[in-house]
UniProtKB/TrEMBL annotation:
One of its GO terms (biological process) is fatty acid biosynthetic process. It comes from Rudaeicoccus suwonensis. It comes from the Bacteria. Residues 186-260 form the MaoC-like domain. This is Acyl dehydratase. The lineage of its organism: Bacteria, Bacillati, Actinomycetota, Actinomycetes, Micrococcales.
Length: 287
């Protein structure tokens, strides 16, 4: 029987995050729990949405960016990670991929019911990967879904590693040059609540094995979607693969190859100096 954890309000993310990190050492892997974290009747603060839009580059509108709904669901994810039944440690986990499905635009004025579950634990060449599924309903209607894949390094699980899907070259071209400031991680943390230390200061990032501060993957996905916002369909699927850390301060190049009507738009975020692909993704309209 599914265990339901219902949150009556927004959790203290700092406290929950600290609990998840503090208990990481005792989490050695195993079967995923049949647990669902829910929060009902969520209302969006217009000022908070406006701050988020400014940091990510979205136009100020009364529709929620698909990535902002991930923002609303993220505290539920961390609450799941902090639950003693969850077998994998938050500390050292890596966000590999993120797919967002917007079934229809969600309005600022609507009350949103959110839920989060974990499933599909499977081998990865560097550990175990797990899918975290988030959903948003309005008056019983499924309006948005998120699928976040996390890697837990050094863990093991039975089974064969799934084959990697074949894909062509990432889009390339002149693109738009973005100069990312050293405080971008702190600014996005302020509007997203994601206070992972690797995003906040060079010293804490170095302690986790990075040469300097790295920006949030969800900022990258949001900024890339904002870069093609005028071309987004009312319903779409946006998939991103976070290939390499986006170091800040730094300079990147955003490239978008717009597909034919009804086809996917290919996206890439590249290191301007090395030309390596940092984030790769696409946006596909839903008819």
């Amino acid at each position: 029987m599914t265990k339901v954890i219902e949150l009556s309000g927004p959790p203290s993310l700092g406290r929950v995050y600290a609990k998840a990190v503090a208990t990481s050492r005792g989490r050695r892997g195993g079967d995923l729990p049949d647990v669902r974290v829910v929060r009902k009747g969520v209302r969006v603060d217009p000022a908070a949405l406006a701050d988020y839009d400014r940091v990510c580059g979205f136009a100020l509108r009364d529709e929620l960016p698909a990535t902002y709904l991930h923002n609303l669901a993220f505290p539920l994810q961390v609450s799941l990670f902090a639950d003693k039944r969850y077998p994998y440690p938050l500390n050292g986990s890596v966000h590999l991929d993120n797919t967002l499905t917007q079934h229809r635009p969600v309005l600022l004025t609507e009350a949103i019911d959110l839920s989060v579950t974990a499933g599909n634990a499977r081998p990865h060449r560097r550990g175990v990967q797990v899918d975290i599924t988030s959903q948003a309903h309005v008056a019983g209607e499924l309006v948005w879904e998120g699928l976040a894949t996390y890697l837990y390094r050094g863990r093991r699980i039975e089974g064969a590693e799934p084959p990697r899907a074949a894909e062509g070259d990432a889009p390339d071209g002149p693109g738009a040059v973005w100069r990312l400031s050293g405080d971008l991680g702190r600014r996005f943390s302020a509007v997203s609540g994601d206070i992972n230390p690797i995003h906040l200061h060079p010293l804490t990032a170095k302690a986790m094995g990075f040469p300097r501060t790295i920006v949030h993957g969800m900022w990258s996905q949001a900024a890339m979607l904002a870069g093609v916002e005028s071309r987004l369909s009312p319903a779409y699927v946006a998939s991103m693969s976070f290939r390499k850390p986006v170091l800040i301060p730094g300079t990147v190049r955003f490239v978008a190859q717009v597909g034919a009507p009804g086809e996917a738009t290919q996206l890439a975020l590249r290191d301007r100096r090395k030309d390596t692909v940092l984030v790769r993704g696409d946006v596909r309209p839903i008819s």
